[in-house]
What we know:
The protein is mainly alpha-helical. Helix content is 84%, strand content 0%. It has helices at residues 6-21, 23-33, 38-66, 72-96.
Amino acid sequence: MDIFSQETIIFLQIILVNVILSGDNAIVIGMVASQFEGSLRKKILIYGTLVAVVMRLVFTGIVTFLLQFEGVKLIGGILLLWIVYKLYQDVIKKKRK
């Protein structure tokens, strides 16, 4: 008997990736909040962080649900390869100019 089901493992993997990538949210929220005065800045930091956490939880649940279907990982991988190819083309074009 497995301690964790496949869905639980996928959910935990997605949460780990979200935690690792959450630094950019803090930077953006801080940049926006720095444009405002004291008490409003605190509200922006608190509400911005709360909204970011809630959105991460909601999207994590959606992604966990979608990854249960066959072919979703393949389609995601193909899309990532296409994005890498486009970025590679942009870099090569900029070096040639």
